[in-house]
Amino acid sequence: MAKDYDHESNRGLFIERLWRSLKYECVYLQAFANGLQAKQHIGQWMRHYNTDRPHSVFQGHTPNEIYYRLRDQEGAPDRRGRTQPSAA
């Protein structure tokens, strides 16, 4: 049970960091005219965050690079830590 708790608390830390970055790097810097404009700008920022911006926690790789690397590994765990059977 302690392992599950540690995994959940780490996930919470990553989520808190994401929200803080989103607020300070996107939302607080814009004066959105409406919800559509906010959705567009936040979507652009999220794409940048996941595909272009290196992350120190991933040793300078982007989240997308890490996701696809892990996904393509045989027997890679899913997001709940369960190993997946190989496709072969």
Describe the model.
- The chain is an all-alpha fold and 88 residues long.
- The chain is 58% helix and 0% strand.
- The chain is built from 3 helices and no strands.
- It has helices at residues 2-25, 35-51, 63-72.
- The protein is elongated.
- It starts with a helix and ends in a 16-residue tail after the last helix.
- The mean pLDDT is 83.
Give the helices and strands, then pairings.
Layout: H1 2-25, H2 35-51, H3 63-72
State the main characteristics.
mainly alpha; 88 residues; 0% strand; single chain; elongated; 3 helices
Q: What kind of oligomer do you see? A: single chain
* pLDDT < 50 stretches: none
How many DSSP H or I helices?
A: 3
Taking the sheet with the most strands, its summary is: none
Bin the strand percentage: under 5%
What is the ordering of alpha helices and beta strands?
HHH
Instruction: Using the alpha-carbon principal axes, give the shape.
Output: elongated
- DSSP strand count: 0
Estimated helix fraction: 55-70%
The N- to C-terminal Cα distance equals: 33 Å
The radius of gyration computed from the alpha-carbon positions, rounded to a whole number of angstroms, is 16 Å
Q: Averaged pLDDT, please? A: 83
Structural class: mainly alpha
